[in-house]
Amino acid sequence: MIHPTSNYAFSVVFVTAISLLPAARIHAETRQTRPNIVMILSDDQTYTDFGFMGNERVHTPHLDQLARASARFTHGYVPASVCRPSLVTLLTGLYPHQHGVHFNHPPPGFATLLKSEEIGKAQFDAFRSAGAALIRTRPSLPRLLAESGYQCLQTGKFWEGHYRNAGFTHGMTTAQPSGGPNGDITLANGDVVAHGNGDHGLAIGRETMQPIEDFLDETQGQPFFVWYAPFLPHTPHDSPQRYRDLYNDRNDIAEHELPYFAAIAQFDDTVGQLVHSIEKRGLTDNTLFVFAVDNGWEPDVDRYIERRGEWDHTKKSKRAPFDAGLRTPILFRWDGHTQARTITRPVSSVEIVPTILTAAGIDIESLGLPADGLLGEAIGEADGDPNEAVFGAIYPGDASVIGDPGRDVAYRWVRKQQYKLIVPVKRNKKQPWNRYLDEPALYDVVSDPAETDNLIDRDELFKTVTELQGLLDHWWKP
């Protein structure tokens, strides 16, 4: 269950004694089993681009196998359609306006940080540290698990500085240049710095899986948490030729799709390696696998970038308030516990952290999280509310200020049942950021998943629009 609140730190969640009973029973049972947890996160992949989601053109056999054994929430949503805010939600169980990391880049913005000759490594690192400091004040998933006796490994995408900032006990990201092919940038004055999205951690999946193997060997007999968030299928789409060759027998894949599809196949291959690493150690039965995507991404045939030699994303996917950027399948596989079935009601990624904590036997009631989690539904002992709404907001990649997300928010959105309302935020008569929409829009995302038919002016839907606007304002009205 999602509880719309304006500020998690000062909100009180009221629930009935009856609603607490399933969670209490789960809490008692899972305290004894204490599953290992493996969180698998795809980076920039639209929800349609999986075999188990009905796309027969993409090569995802390992993800399809994982999905077959999982409770499958096929209408999952992330609150923001860009990497960093979405990933911090997956670390904290909070919306971006609650955890405060509503941006990819802190002030003064990425272009200024990169191009100003007056900014060297020390200044660049100081600016980035101001944003990364936020996670140290939040009750993050790895911190709570570590306090409960888990060993916690960070790999891949991680924007919050050193891995210890979020409470991981082990990790790859150190907020220093890696010297590898991804993650380093050169400033205007010539200094080399860590971009901020993972540095050494970005080697996982693209170059090696060995850090995970070493961690699993080191933590034998102890409960563990693995954050596997490889820089895949994110650009650069430079996968080895063998992944492109998987599509040689298909004539229905366009030139601009092939590099992206090859990166999806590469990511899927690494998922197979990771699952095998768990299986060969005999740990599968007591491991909870969780899967989600940080945000969607679709290649645009009309947006070829010469200097990079690849296609950019469509305007309706990454960064946008549309389903191509916001929607994600969410999977939970815990053999002997979760039920392999499909749940089609809308759910949110804010529900993932409380699901994991409950499975680990950690009491979530005192945390003030905006959701109770999905474990009862995943194990088949509770039914979710099909009338429950999910929410989110879109922000520019660069923050104008830290500590006031409402100052930067560009769009707010809500989905209930088949209807989704998107409300742009205008300031000083200026058009909303990126001009995705100039006015509010209502879509039936079940019959119109591409969100092309705006129903906002339909008289018969006036009450629907009014209800959704009320829900959105109750959730958060900056």
Shape type = globular
State the CATH topology of the largest domain: Alkaline Phosphatase, subunit A
Instruction: Report the major sheet.
Output: 9 strands, mixed
Under the CATH scheme, which class of the largest domain?
A: Alpha Beta
Report the count of strand segments.
Answer: 17
Helical/strand content category: alpha/beta
Beta-strand percent range: 15-25%
Helix content: 25-40%
Spatial gap, N to C terminus: 23 Å
Q: Total domains, how many?
A: 2
What's the architecture of the largest domain, going by CATH?
A: 3-Layer(aba) Sandwich
Q: Ranges with pLDDT <50 over ≥5 residues?
A: 6-32
Mean pLDDT over the residues? 93
Provide the CATH superfamily of the largest domain: Alkaline Phosphatase, subunit A
- Rg over alpha carbons: 21 Å
Give the count of helical stretches. 14
Question: What does this molecule look like?
Answer:
This protein has 478 residues and is α/β, with parallel strands linked by helices. The protein folds into 2 domains: 8-387, Alkaline Phosphatase, subunit A; 410-475, Arylsulfatase, C-terminal domain (2-Layer Sandwich). It has 14 helices and 17 strands. The strands form 4 sheets. Strands 1, 2, 3, 4, 7, 8, 11, 12 and 13 form a 9-stranded mixed β-sheet that branches. It has a 4-stranded antiparallel β-sheet with strand order 14-15-16-17, covered by helices on one side. The chain has a two-stranded antiparallel ribbon with strand order 5-6. The longest helix is centred in the middle third of the chain and has 22 residues, at 258-279.
